[in-house]
Protein 1
Amino acid sequence: MTTRILTGITTTGTPHLGNYAGAIRPAIVASRDPQADSFYFLADYHALIKCDDPTRIQRSRLEIAATWLACGLDADKATFYRQSDIPEIPELTWLLTCVSAKGLLNRAHAYKASVDKNVEAGEDPDAGVTMGLYSYPVLMAADILMFNAHKVPVGRDQIQHVEMARDIGQRFNHLFGNGKELFTLPEVVIEEDVATLPGLDGRKMSKSYDNTIPLFGSAKQLKDAVARIVTDSRAPGEPKDPDNSHLFTLYQAFSTHEQQAAFRAELLGGLAWGEAKQRLFELLDNELGEARERYHALITRPADLEDILLAGAAKARRIATPFLGELREAVGLRSFREQVQVASEGKKKAAKAARFVSFREDDGFRFRLLDAAGEQLLLSIAFADGKAAGQVTKRLQSEALDLHAELNAFSVRLDGEAVAYSPEFSTDAERDAAMHRLREALAPQE
Ligand code: TRP
């Protein structure tokens, strides 16, 4: 069984070393695991909450996309997309908003911090607080639940948000799942080894502290940043304390145990800070040099990046579109045009009768196949007209079924083209069982 790993990166700012060590690098390593089904995306709707400068938003999306690819993300294996290319996400956000307790969101750290600051300053508690900031965790829950992620690797500051996604998903399951887990409840993953990198001044490396080391600046910029790392005033020859040096912490994040032991010994032996900085610079330059070249090549070809991201969005929507259809159905947003057409006419077979239900949506005509208990077996692609959809339902009942397993779902093909998709399953066994049930339901009547 594969594990679906999902994480988003907010597209404000330019990626720095802290983002690389804390999020990008571990995520890319994880995506190479054959058991991993990774969903990585640019959280550009989240970016709008914090930033009202369109130029910066656009620049940052481009830089972050180029960064992930330059660092080695394989966009064919992973699903790599922009949140804003998936219209199902804001739609799901609303469905989730309607089941999210206001009290839950009142407790969100980011919102509470803003309120505390206002109160301290003697302002209205909600001064400057937008609904975007307030609802931030619901949008994030939609990101996660849309794709039924099992694991969500994030920084510590995001743990609460993943917990909220679980709460909200659980509530939705309870209200609308009819005993079925509509949403997988995600688990948060924190990389214990890397935790958070210290910045130049020893506080957490963060754009808001202006203490970052750029990831893909020139070698000179890298060197200059390293030179600005704050150290204590011990002179060359005096023993340094590696455990109280954030320069050493930075070194640790990019080195092997042997390298760390050697560097530690040198510091204890009185290595000058200037030398120590040179060691760190060489380590980083070695780690990042090749990726930096790939990054600069990518950033000059934005049209190629656009194509890669649009392909990623199409891949993601092959899951999101039918799943949102199921969720709309679950909450009672159903078409008035649904016509019930019993698949197997034979009265004797009525017990296992499956039904095709056709309906019209903005993008065309679709049908679902429901089993006798009303559970969805298939959702079709959109057809230009009702007649085309009808022909497909006829053929599915009379021809040998051509089923293809895809990720955690399966498709039904006619003439080699997928015409309908199953819902998502959490295990391969469940998926295979559903394929079997489908064959039974559509077995030609004698
Ligand atoms: N809020 C996250 C951050 O700022 C980014 C994010 C948005 C995210 N949606 C997500 C992370 C979904 C994990 C899963 O870091």
Note: The first strand starts at residue 3 and ends at 10.
Protein 2
Amino acid sequence: MMQPLPTPTEIASAIRNVPDFPKPGIQFKDITPLLADARLFSGSIDLMIGNFKPGMVDAVVGIDARGFIFAAAAAARLQAGFVPVRKKGKLPYHTHEEQYDLEYGTATVAVHVDALKPGSRVLLIDDLLATGGTAAAAAALVQKLGAEILEISFLIELKFLEGRRKLQGHSVRSLVSY
Ligand code: AMP
């Protein structure tokens, strides 16, 4: 039976704020209560997919690690493939890598060189948009493979960090923002 889609308020109520994790000053958004709720998890996937229907997307690209949870479910629902963008050193085959800046230091994400065919239509997904560095690096990898990004979708957006600035030119969706 079709259940009503969750409202942003319902989704937000299932996201737990954990102060000072993993370090002082960070308000960590813990999505495990949302994942454990069948209606909210399933409804969040539907909302993150937006108006895309099966046949419109070739691959859903998910970002390591919580992005995988939503991207894999979205891929199955859209009858599309799932492609992981992983932290450097995790993928076994030949990779392209993209480095980006963190508050202190840098990080690197990677994708298999044959993960996407040129021209394939991609929905890019992560759980949370903060400064936008991770998503921008993942988007650059998708484009390096010659694929087309239709939309970038997040469960959560931390608006005050202005991560959308790094994603200019892309259609960006988020379900709840802080
Ligand atoms: P950024 O590159 O700054 O946009 O950071 C986004 C990535 O870091 C996402 O993959 C998130 O899972 C993670 N992240 C950043 N800030 C938080 C936060 N406050 N709570 C939970 N995850 C976060």
Note: The pocket of adenosine monophosphate is lined by residues 26-29, 63, 66, 126-135, 163 (CB under 6 Å).
